[in-house]
Amino acid sequence: MSDRFSSPPPTTLGMSRNVLIAGSVVLFHVAALWALQSGLIRKAAEVVIPVQILSEFIEPPKPKEPPPPPPPPPPAPRPKEVKAPPPPPRPMAVRTPAPAPSAPTGVVEPPPPAPPQPAPVR
Hints:
By secondary structure, this protein is mostly helical.
């Protein structure tokens, strides 16, 4: 077997490492309790200041000034006077002039068919 699994040698005081750690933790707690009992609690209580003394030093907050009133709303726009559009111009009656005596007259019959054209010779 190797030395790895064997128990470690005792320390100089003859105790193992775990016993020394546990003992130091217990000793620290005992010292903390003794310090609280002997005067740390009294000093902590003196730090608390009665409300009466605090009220002399602290001034109450000043009341906030009310915000200025909002500006008045702009006056409502007045509706524009709606003018009726002028009536559309009416067409004027035009006299039909009498036809001129030399005016051509229309033909009611269709014109005769055109004669056939001879084919071009080459």
